[in-house]
Amino acid sequence: MSDCFVHELELEVYEEERSILNTRFISGAMLYNGCLQECLKRCQLMQQSQEYQKARRLPKQAAERKQLFRKAIERHGFDEYKIHRWLTQYLKTFPFYEHLDSTICQKLASRAFIATRDFSVGLRGRPRFKNTKRMRSLEGKSNATGIRFKEGMILWKGLKLKPIYDLKDPDGVEAHALSCRIKYVRMIRKTVKGKIYYFAQLILEGKPLSTKTTLDAVVGIDLGPSTVAVVSENDASLSMITPMRDKSSRRLQRKIARSRELHKITTHRARKLYSNLAEVKRKEAMTRKRMLGKKVNEILAFGNIIKIEKLSYKAFQRCFGKSVGRHAPGMFVEKLRHRAENAGGKFIEINPYKTRLSQVCHGCGREEKKPLSQRLHRCPCGIEMQRDLYSAFLAVHVAEDHLDRSQAQDAWPGAQALLRQAVSRCQETARDEPELVRFGLKKTELFAC
Question: In total, how many domains does the chain have?
Answer without folding.
Answer: 2
